[in-house]
Structure formats: C-alpha cells, structure tokens
Amino acid sequence: MKNLIIYASKYGCTADCARKLADILTGETEVVDINKQNKIEFSNWDRIIIGSSVYMGQVNKKIKTLCEDRKIELMGKELIIFICSGIPENFNDVLNANFSDEIREHTSEAVHFGGRLELSKMNFMDKTIAGLMAKQKAEGKPIVEINETAILELAKRLNC
Predict the structure, then answer these.
(1) Paired strand residues for 31
(2) Which residues pair with 54 in a beta bridge?
(3) How would you label 37-51 residue by residue, b for 16+ Cβ within 10 Å and e otherwise?
(4) How many whole angstroms from its chain centre is CA 38?
(5) pTM of the model
(6) Which among 47, 97, 130, 132 would be 20 to 30 A from 78, CA to CA?
C-alpha cells in the first residue's frame, strides 16, 4: 500500500506524529508539510492520511481547504484523518466543525494523537493558554501529551 501523509503543524507536534507514523507504516510512504508544498499529487497513492493540529477548535486552514477543494479526488482514495490537540474530549466536535459530512463519512479512520506544549516556540497568547492548561495539571487533571499508543495502534491496523 502506498501512503501519502499530508500534515500541517503549528509548533511541531503534528509533524513529529506524521513522521512517527510514516516510520512504522509498511509500504512506500511520503510525508508532506502542506505549509511547504502547495502542489500535492494524489494519483500515485493508495491511501491519503491527513493530519492537523487544532487551534481554538479549528484545524489548519490549508488542510481544511485541501479537503474541500479536492474532495472528489479524496473520495477515490482510502482516507485517514489524525488530529493533534490538547483536549481529546473535543475530538468529535473538531471533526464535525472542520470536515464536511462527505469527508467524515468517507474516512475509514479518524484518530486523536494527543498533543504537546512547545512553550519555547509559543507566542504570548499561546503561552497564556498553556499556563491555564498547566494549572489544570496542578489540580490533578492530566497535562497534554502525545499518545504514542494511538500512533502505534493506527499503524498496526493500517499495516494489516
């Protein structure tokens, strides 16, 4: 199976998850950062895997546009979506708000890979939000982290 992973990452977490997934998948796999490559060819690939970070409930605009503008092409491929965010409880809301019914219904798997706080890369507003998340940890709620198990389990299912 030939896999094309297209991702958008704000601070690097989604990029790392895309590369980790690519390293585990069998078959030819290419990883494309949509922010660095505008022309993406689907015809040579059997499976398209789309990943995005989430900011304020929204996936990356280029990912959203790709899914809408090239919906017909995507419908002819096996489609997987993964999301990286700090609030796994909002996963289904994020999918519903950012992907059309057709895309969601065609997607064979949609997975939440967790997230990671990159404080050294964040602007002031993002650091403020991260501070609120850290406060939740002090109150006994888990802080955001990459769900390595979710990545491994997805790869295992896709490699069958």
Answers:
(1) 5
(2) 59
(3) eeeeeeeebebbbbb
(4) 18
(5) 0.85
(6) 97
Entry field: residues in the chain: 160
Strands (E), the chain: 3-8, 29-33, 47-55, 58-59, 78-84, 109-112
Backbone angles phi, psi at 57, to 5 degrees: 80, 5
Q: What single-letter DSSP state applies at residue 146?
A: B
pLDDT in tens, 5-15: 999 998 789 99
Partners of 7 in beta bridges = 33, 51
Q: Terminus-to-terminus CA distance in the chain, angstroms?
A: 10
Task: Return d(Cα 109, Cα 99) in angstroms, integer.
Answer: 13
Structure tokens at 102: 């057709």
Beta-ladder partners of 146: 114
**What's the pLDDT tens digit per position in 26-67?**
999 999 999 999 799 999 999 999 999 998 789 999 999 999
CATH for the stretch 3-117+146-159 = 3.40.50.360
